[in-house]
Prior knowledge:
It is a single chain. The chain has two domains: about 25-110 and about 355-575, Alkaline Phosphatase, subunit A (3-Layer(aba) Sandwich); about 115-350, BPG-independent phosphoglycerate mutase, domain B (2,3-Bisphosphoglycerate-independent phosphoglycerate mutase, substrate-binding domain), CATH 3.40.1450.10. The protein contains 17 helices and 19 strands. Helix 6 (about 160-170) runs parallel beside helix 7. Helix 10 (about 305-315) links the parallel strand 10 (about 295-300) and strand 11. The longest helix has 24 residues, at about 455-475. The model has no long low-confidence stretch (mean pLDDT about 95). It has helices at about 55-60, 60-70, 95-105, 110-120, 130-135, 160-170, 190-210, 235-245, 255-265, 305-315, 360-365, 375-380, 380-385, 420-430, 445-450, 455-475, 550-555, and strands at about 5-10, 15-20, 35-40, 75-80, 145-150, 175-180, 210-220, 250, 275-280, 295-300, 330-335, 345-350, 370-375, 400-405, 435-440, 480-485, 525-530, 535-540, 570-575. By secondary structure, the chain is an alpha/beta fold. An eight-stranded mixed beta sheet has the order 8-9-7-6-5-10-11-12, sandwiched between helices. The chain has a seven-stranded mixed beta sheet with strand order 4-17-16-3-15-13-14, with helices on both faces. A two-stranded antiparallel ribbon has the order 1-2. About 30% of the residues lie in helices and about 20% in strands. The structure holds 2-phosphoglyceric acid and manganese (II) ion (2 copies).
Amino acid sequence: MSPSNLNFELKGTKLTMERPHRWRLRHHPVCRRGKKVMIIILDGWGEQIPDDFNSINVAPTPTMDALKKTAPDRWRLVRAHGLSVGLPSDEDMGNSEVGHNALGAGRIFTQGAGLVDQALATGKLYEGAGFKYISSAFAQNTLHLMGLLSDGGVHSRLDQLLLLMKGCAERGAKRIRVHILLDGRDVAPGSAPKYIDILEKEFVDIRNMGCDACIASGGGRMAVTMDRYENDWGVVKIGWDAQVRGEAPHKFATAMEALKNLKEANPKLDDQYFPPFVIVGPDGNAEGPILDNDAVVSFNFRADRMVMAAKAFDLEEFDKFDRGVMPKIKYAGMLQYDADIELPKHYLVTPPLIEKTSGEYLVHNYVKSWACSETVKFGHVTFVWNGNRSGMFSSSLEKYVEIPSNKGIPFNDNPEMKAIAIAEKARDALLSGKFDHVRVNIANGDMVGHTGDFKATISACEAVDRAVKIMLDAVEEVKGIFLITADHGNAEDMVKRNAKTGEPILNSAGEPEVLTSHTCNPVPCIIGGPGLPKGVKFRTDLPNAGLANVAATFINFHGFEAPWDYEPTLIEYKED
Ligand SMILES: O=C(O)[C@@H](CO)OP(=O)(O)O
Ligand SMILES: [Mn+2]
Ligand SMILES: [Mn+2]
């Protein structure tokens, strides 16, 4: 990241001066103001060897294939994972939050995962006001920890949960109840028992420290609690009933028993879709309903899928579902999930402060923007794009359009999702002449890729390609410029691979093991359109460029030099 201050020396003394900040951007020497610019984010669309397990390769994608032929001048790859997007290491796959943050902000910020790691390693987490708030319940009441149980590193991490549990027990927690959400989306389907086993083993140590600890409830992340962008409050409600009231249709003595029985009853059940269950003691009573004066921490660091639950736990006024008798709890998030609305009021780790994003610059420079996606990705291209900021910068210069996602249909049953509807709306927005900047997220590659259903993901990719064609035709018509990229990989790889050979790993039945997660692959970045000045092409001196380099690039397309502290633009100008 570029330094935010000017450092200099005066008579041997080191001084730091804050750079004056200006919103007005300088004019670009080559790209003229006033061009219509279309930004297309293909969610979960990475680049990977074109074999039979790459659904993008198998799907008919004539539009995207034709664009690839413009490499290297107008088609290149950019990094979308690990350090390039502010994650702790290059072993970390990309995800929508860090990807859209980087795309919208044009800089790389240390993200929630790394901030929590640091706060735990330094012990700062235990010194903050958030921890003081929850720890006042430790001596007399129960501490509830609720969140995603895996080491996927997208929303949460198991090692952080274990450290937090231990840290709380060391600091006086007498009773801990963990409300687990099964993953199978950022990690292998069917891997939930592995994580439960690790957690149960940790409980032994915790109990030896004089703290009574066990799992209290559970369920799959897509069915219980972790809905987002208000797609389905029913998902949060069934989580609430299990976690707070100790009520669920399924009751078991242990989480392992829950998994075994529910899987036997429905062998096709994936971890992500497990129904809610409650753990009960020998007397049949729930092990850990949430009661008056208890402390509750949601240990996910990522915001989007915890905002709705945080509202239910934190807000006094709440009308999204009937919470029943609301216990008087002390609730904190691992992070604050929405700083603008101070949700939640208490949190253990301060989130990254992502300011001066491209959206705000465009508004200050009178560029009119229009952004759209369907519900399941709507916040990605608005809230996350704007640095996790609710609302718009200017209601007169911006318009955000949400297309309702299908409800109650598995994504693999309708792999087209709303791709064509989004594309048509974007086309109309561009042709209306009212907007200079039209930005969309097309969700299919990611949402269908996560189901692990190969055939459906192929259809998803085909739909994405058709949607791209509709939008590019509109760019052609208005003589505009387009930039297509993705936030991370997913659909391009549907199998687990041997890290050395790249060959698919086979399961005991001799079939390739399904990969439902994102990947560490780079993603394409493609520019073009009749409005792109002749001689503008990708520069070749940034081989390791990543998503954070994209904002400077499209700011250029709008006719401006990028802000001085943004990652460098991907383009250069060469006369033929
Ligand atoms: O569905 C999600 O929450 C994540 C995967 O955990 O996907 P994405 O980052 O693409 O939103
Ligand atoms: Mn994504
Ligand atoms: Mn995803």
